[in-house]
Structure formats: structure tokens, C-alpha cells
Amino acid sequence: MASADLFDFTVPLFRKGMKTLKALLEKGEAYAKENDIPVDDIVGWKLADDMKPLSFQIQTASNTTKNTCVRVAKLDLPVMDDKEETLADVYKRIQLTLDLLDTVESKHKAEFVGKEASEVIMSTGSRGDRKFTGLSYVQNFAIPNFYFHFVTAYDILRNKGVQVGKLDYLGAL
Fold it and tell me: Which branch of life, at top level (predicted)?
């Protein structure tokens, strides 16, 4: 049996999550149209006044995806500006992330091999740098952070009345 590497625990998981976010947004869009809510209002929806909106949740899931590839596999990937203001912008951001993952898989999969013990440094601005190994970064930051923002996006939609449930959250099995 072949062993799995950090690619196997990140890129396919992130791809599935981003596709699921798109499907959740499509349900949110349909809900908005059925209820005469301007579809672009969706991107500003929040769970609580002091929380970031749906657009931020998508941006952060996307950034976590990209930054994992940059930090673990040491890839040089394009910066994505966090300026999505419309639902069309958010859909475009998701597609850019999926395209990036396709490129990583087709051209850079080998860059993940053997990176479990490699040093990963995450700059946190005023809090300084955080140091991880590739494995501890994936286990303790990347995957939990991705799913925090993924589930927050799901919760925002659900809270606003969009009929989504566990199977929608799990996506295609």
C-alpha cells in the first residue's frame, strides 16, 4: 500500500470543499431569487454583527487553500485580492481557486512529497512568525482554518433561511 503525503491530505480536500461552497452558494442564490432578495446581498450576510460576512468566509477558505500550497510545497502562486463584492465576484474567486488547485495537481504534486518535517513559517503580522513543520501546519492550522470558514459560510446561509442540510455540507461523497 502506498503512503499518503501532504498533497493527499490537502489539495483534494480543498477542491471538494470549494466545489461544495459553490453548490451552497447556488442554493443561496436560488433562495434569494425565490424570496425577492437581491442576490448580491448574500455576500454581506453575517451570523452576528461583529463577525465577518459570507464573502470573507469564502476569501479565507480560498486563501487557506492557496497559502497551504505556498507554505508547504514552496510554490510561487499569484496573489488573489480580497475584493469580492458581488455574488459573481465570489463565484469567480471560487473558480480561480479550483483552477489553481488543478494547476497544482497537474504540475506541482511532487513538491508536496517529503515535506512533512520541512519548516513552515506563517507570518502573523504584529504577532510575529509562527513556526510549524509541514505536517503540523496542515494538521493544526490549514485544515482547521479551512473548515472553520467553510462551516461558517454554511451556517450563514442556513441561518438566513437557505434550505441546506448535512448532505449539502458533506458535498458529493
Answer: Eukaryota
Closest CA to 43 of 109, 87, 105: 87
The set of cell numbers assigned to 63 is 486563501
β-pair partners for 131: 121
Question: Would you say the pTM of this structure is higher than 0.70?
Answer: yes
Question: pLDDT 10s digit of each residue in the chain, 173 long?
Answer: 456 689 999 999 999 999 999 999 999 999 999 999 999 999 999 999 999 999 999 999 999 999 999 999 999 998 899 999 999 999 999 999 999 999 999 999 999 999 999 999 998 888 899 999 999 999 999 999 999 999 999 999 999 999 999 999 998 66
Assigned superfamily of 6-170: dinb family like domain (1.20.120.450)
In degrees and rounded to multiples of 5, residue 121 shows phi and psi of: -115, 125
